[in-house]
Amino acid sequence: MVRYPHTLSVSYRGSGSYDGTGDYQVGSVTSMDITGRAERNSKGSLITLNDGAQVTYSWEFYTQALSYSIPFNADAELSDEDGTFWRGQFLGMSKTQAGTKIWL
Hints:
Layout: E1 6-13, E2 17-18, E3 24-25, E4 29-40, E5 46-48, E6 54-56, E7 59-63, E8 75-80, E9 83-89, E10 92-95, E11 100-103
């Protein structure tokens, strides 16, 4: 039995900045792969976003404790040994000392 059979691939563009001549430079793209366990939201459960809006999420993703955050609406992709089975947006995360729960 594999503890973390799924991979969450996340990519997002960081914020840009102005260089010394005043030209805008777009932020760099950050990509990462996180191993964990994905569970489908088969009950239509909702989460509340930072602005108070409630949305239905498609997947919950459980992984070990992460030391970093992922920005809202980052591009996300779930895969396993057979390939990609879901593509969408990152909705939020909850960090605890023992692990991290991510909503997609």
